[in-house]
Specification:
- The protein is mainly β.
- It is built from six helices and 20 strands.
């Protein structure tokens, strides 16, 4: 109970901080945004196939996944020592995502995590106002990050990481720096885990014409393993510092026959559900549901049955763990592949 109370109090403190003005010498310390108009939106994309299959975001799953730890540094543990993870996710229209992550144990059981989160947007034709082509650009974005975590009082884990961000769109270039701070609490019997993360606190260092805001996010997660069944469930609540950041245009909604999102819809649009089913000792089946994704993708008179759903699986082979994840978008889906390799033999 003490651990849960600590998580609640920390979340309340951070939420109050985010909804107040932070000044140093009369100047705002950071330019932050919790809505969809922030720069560096690729930072919100999942780093591993397991994260994709669990709804795209999970900061509390009980397990040993480097991709989840790259999103929530408090998930770094000594069990990840000398593990390496590589992920590839082909998107639509030639867009590719690549991730390389690793972890190493330091003295006094500190754990350092590092990674590169890279987006390749392919080749885009450059044209003038008449549509005449005069070349092409190859836009890309990436984040290089380093994090560190430490266990405190056996059940608490504290983690933080810093990210150097680069965005290149032809002549439009910018750099930024951001920090994540997270805490997780694992129950004494290891069947329940609470997690809180303050993500992307930072600013642009170099920008084109005017400074843009970073996608600040306050996230709370809870995962529960069943003692007598091979199941684990997760609930993740994101964007907790703002009640409603859904796009809403009255004229467009009326013309297209959309209904204005109500209070209940705004509540559920903050939630992501995940479930993990353990089949035997080595096979794991994952399912996820992202409420906001379904709300944003559903269209009148279109097949919308799978919008918001995600699925995947994972299994180990010797020192390698293979993961696959997919998410559904109208009639399309993407494929996320991850390999996690242990550089040393586990006990």
């Amino acid at each position: 109970m003490r651990g849960k109370q600590f998580i609640y109090k920390l979340g309340f403190f951070i939420a109050c901080y985010l909804n107040s003005s932070c000044f140093i010498g009369g100047n705002v310390l950071f330019a932050q945004s919790t809505a969809g108009n922030a720069v560096y939106q690729f930072l919100k994309l999942p780093y591993s196939a397991k994260a994709s299959s669990l709804g795209g975001l999970n900061i509390s799953s009980i397990g040993n996944d480097l991709g989840l730890a790259m999103m929530q540094p408090a998930l770094l543990t000594t069990k990840m020592d000398r593990e390496l993870q590589v992920s590839v996710k082909p998107y639509f229209a030639g867009i590719q995502q690549y991730d390389v992550n690793g972890a190493n144990k330091l003295k006094s059981d500190w754990v350092i995590g590092w990674g590169v989160h890279y987006m390749d947007y392919g080749s885009i034709a450059q044209t003038d106002v008449l549509g005449n082509e005069y070349g092409s650009i190859n836009p890309n974005e990436y984040a290089i990050q380093v994090g560190i975590a430490k266990t405190y009082m056996e059940n608490f884990n504290f983690g933080t990481q810093i990210k150097f961000i680069q965005s290149n769109y032809g002549q439009f270039r910018s750099t930024g720096i951001a920090m994540d701070v997270g805490v997780r609490y694992l129950s004494p019997y290891g069947l329940s885990q609470w997690s809180i993360l303050l993500q992307n606190v930072g600013t642009q260092l170099k920008y084109f014409q005017e400074q843009e805001e970073l996608p600040l996010n306050l996230i709370l997660g809870w995962s529960k393993k069943l003692a007598n069944a091979p199941l684990q469930f997760s609930v993740t609540a994101e964007r907790l510092s703002v009640w409603n950041d859904n796009y809403y245009d009255l004229d467009f909604y009326n013309a297209e026959g959309y209904k204005k999102p109500g209070s209940l819809q705004n509540l559920f649009n903050h939630l992501i559900l995940g479930s993990q089913f353990y089949i035997g000792e080595n096979f794991e089946l994952d399912l996820g549901y992202h409420f906001a994704r379904r709300f944003e993708l559903n269209l009148p008179n279109q097949p919308n049955s799978l919008n918001g759903l995600s699925a995947g699986f994972g299994f180990p082979y010797k020192r390698i763990q293979f993961q696959y994840g997919t998410g559904f978008f109208q009639k399309n889906s993407y494929h996320h592949f991850t390999l996690q390799y242990a550089l040393k033999q586990k006990d």
